Amino acid sequence: PAMAEYRRLLEELAQNITAEDLAQLKSACREDIPSGESEAIATSHHWFDFLERHSKLDRDNLSYIEHIFEISRRPDLLTMVVQYRTQVLKISEEDEVDTKLTRIPSAKKYKDIIRQPSEEGIIKLAPPP
């Protein structure tokens, strides 16, 4: 059943990736796709197949496409992947800190930095007159 869920996720993602999106996604991972192969990737299905063949994507390792969707500014696609991960793989954000399966979403990564400003990051206010 997990494989079927994974295929359903890829299908759902594929339906939300236009030709323009695909060009942007291929560009975002250009260091991983030889230029000759990039031309051959004409659909999002081809793109997913390519990533699977090159061990960048599989049923329980989605961190690569999460990263690509993040840098391509596609929170809608990223959300689908995160939902799959938490519901199908049962990996919550708390669990994933210790795993190499997934990356910590950037918002969570930066939250802690925001919470503890560094000394030079603190704006000193002059005492009231």
From TrEMBL:
GO terms for cellular component: cytoplasm. It holds the Pfam family DED. It is found in: Cytoplasm. Residues 5-83 form the DED domain. Keywords: Apoptosis, Cytoplasm, Phosphoprotein, Sugar transport, Transport. Its main location: cytoplasm. One of its GO terms (biological process) is MAPK cascade. PROSITE patterns: DED (PS50168). The keyword Chaperone does not apply. This is Astrocytic phosphoprotein PEA-15. The gene is Pea15.
